Amino acid sequence: MSLPRIAVDAMGGDEGVRVMIDGAAEARRRHDQFQFLLVGDETRIKAALDDHPNMRGASEILHCDDVVGGDELPTKALRRAKTTSMGLAVNAVKQGDAGAAVSAGNTGALMAMSKLALRTMPGIDRPALAALMPTLGDNDVIMLDLGANTEADARNLVQFAIMGAAYSKIVTERDLPRVRLLNIGTEENKGFDRLREAAEQLQDATGLDMSFEGYVESDKINRGEVDVVVTDGFSGNIALKAIEGTARFVTDLLRNAFTSSIRSKIGFLVSRPATELLKHHLDPNNHNGAVFLGLNGVVVKSHGSATAGGVANAVTVAARLLEEDLTQRISTGLAELHAREEATFDNSAAK
Amino acid sequence: MSLPRIAVDAMGGDEGVRVMIDGAAEARRRHDQFQFLLVGDETRIKAALDDHPNMRGASEILHCDDVVGGDELPTKALRRAKTTSMGLAVNAVKQGDAGAAVSAGNTGALMAMSKLALRTMPGIDRPALAALMPTLGDNDVIMLDLGANTEADARNLVQFAIMGAAYSKIVTERDLPRVRLLNIGTEENKGFDRLREAAEQLQDATGLDMSFEGYVESDKINRGEVDVVVTDGFSGNIALKAIEGTARFVTDLLRNAFTSSIRSKIGFLVSRPATELLKHHLDPNNHNGAVFLGLNGVVVKSHGSATAGGVANAVTVAARLLEEDLTQRISTGLAELHAREEATFDNSAAK
């Protein structure tokens, strides 16, 4: 099977060119059919490639000098879509030169460039940003939106649910991903009208490839009882960062506690395999790769501070979404929703 | 100094009468001037008091048979404000029979009863629910609102900031509590208009007893860099529960890791003092007592599953807020705000 190649913005992220190239090479060690279009400064990319003989014949370089700044306003970056490494990587997907793009650069700029170049899918009003998070269960949980849309109405939320379920089916291999709307209680009367409306629509939508199970509160996101958490970009961003911040807070407290006495230092050394397990489970690199859902093409955002292993995970997510044709799956989900809506309409009209 | 007594709803909470009475008794062991009005089933309260000779002469019982259910709708519970232990405890504050009320019952019902009996303070449009959370710094952080108001406009947020700062001054003893608005970025253009408006008003308000320092993202709440986090009830509830859930998630992972092998079990035993420190720091009982701010009277919500130690902490919070006259401090803060607004108005009019 031959996969379309993946465009990698080699210049984005806090760690520079080398970590992006090391990451691509690691992904190729895991999956030797991967092919790359590496976008950025040719001299630095070539220098980084010297360490990776496995990338020979598997990568082409697209040179450019311009880079989007980490703090740059998206509107400003957009003007340089045709000259920056980020813009060219996204554009390669538009032109069919690559099947997917991966960047560790400025999230807002990447979203803006991706929307402009790839356009929103038919049937989707607004794309959303989705990420994976660890759980106590067998698979990661997906949450969306995480900040692409500060607000979202009932219609947006229903579309997010369909997109999230399509993504979850691919990464978890669950037939019917368990989908819930984020709310501040599980009773029907909780939260906003838009949440109640979205819940009603999803409850009625029996033909969809998901199991809609009502509301979830933010203390239950990581229990392994839900596969897709649907919310607006403001609440999603608040929940995501609260989870990330608290995981760091607790591990910081643990480190302080373990170094507080000789006895606890010894205990720490003895139990190191256990704490390494914990570290591995919580390491953001193992859940790296946030996906822009709802575009005509696959764009994956790698965390700015990801390691080579993290970048390899983001590249693998991109490849998996291509291989399983995420965009087609979302279209099918939307068609099912619309078929149901029309049937409801016909029934009402017949009465 | 003689403090007004504290009304304790002995019937609320998951743990029953005994934990509430044990908690009151423990609070009195710490502060022997505390006096109580214990509201609920007389026979069970008397049985629980038998274990606590220190409560003799320090407590009066107000008998009633009726109890608010944990899942009861607030509107339904309100009709029984005059017959339930919760309603009578709050009413004792209204009548001047007690200075503050503590309950571990249904939060929505307690809020509704408190608003009806005590009314909102002059100058406050909507009361808010505030709680303490642990940090890496020297003191707890206060967050509000946590769900009393699903939505909040700029004016509400400014009032929440004033109420939160007054509360923080009492529990942290900081002269100028550091106040921030919860947002999904720290740049000026992030989030909603209402956040930008509230930020502008607080930035201009130089005479207030707080240091307003802009926005905070939810991954920075527990770093010890902020004393009061201000937000609407939906976002606040999402952030609070995400923090609580993740702290539990990480400690669950840690427990799993520590019991995964003989070696790590030994390591756990050796480092037990360290993990106990962690447990102590994160134990919700040590941060128990959410406060309804903005009412003509002090009402404290103890967590439904709090231990006697947790209840004692909630009682102590209530006593401390009475002693330091929280309500008066909020009035002063509001007067400062209004004085400033009028001065601004006079200046504008003079131009």
From TrEMBL, chains A, B:
<dbReference type="GO" id="GO:0005737">
    <property type="term" value="C:cytoplasm"/>
</dbReference>
<keyword id="KW-0443">Lipid metabolism</keyword>
<keyword id="KW-0012">Acyltransferase</keyword>
<comment type="subunit">
    <text>Homodimer. Probably interacts with PlsY.</text>
</comment>
<dbReference type="GO" id="GO:0006633">
    <property type="term" value="P:fatty acid biosynthetic process"/>
</dbReference>
<dbReference type="InterPro" id="IPR012281">
    <property type="entry name" value="Phospholipid_synth_PlsX-like"/>
</dbReference>
<dbReference type="InterPro" id="IPR003664">
    <property type="entry name" value="FA_synthesis"/>
</dbReference>
<comment type="similarity">
    <text>Belongs to the PlsX family.</text>
</comment>
<keyword id="KW-0594">Phospholipid biosynthesis</keyword>
<protein>
    <recommendedName>
        <fullName>Phosphate acyltransferase</fullName>
        <ecNumber>2.3.1.274</ecNumber>
    </recommendedName>
</protein>
<comment type="pathway">
    <text>Lipid metabolism; phospholipid metabolism.</text>
</comment>
<keyword id="KW-0808">Transferase</keyword>
<keyword id="KW-1208">Phospholipid metabolism</keyword>
<keyword id="KW-0444">Lipid biosynthesis</keyword>
<comment type="function">
    <text>Catalyzes the reversible formation of acyl-phosphate (acyl-PO(4)) from acyl-[acyl-carrier-protein] (acyl-ACP). This enzyme utilizes acyl-ACP as fatty acyl donor, but not acyl-CoA.</text>
</comment>
<keyword id="KW-0963">Cytoplasm</keyword>
<dbReference type="GO" id="GO:0043811">
    <property type="term" value="F:phosphate:acyl-[acyl carrier protein] acyltransferase activity"/>
</dbReference>
<dbReference type="Pfam" id="PF02504">
    <property type="entry name" value="FA_synthesis"/>
</dbReference>
<dbReference type="GO" id="GO:0008654">
    <property type="term" value="P:phospholipid biosynthetic process"/>
</dbReference>
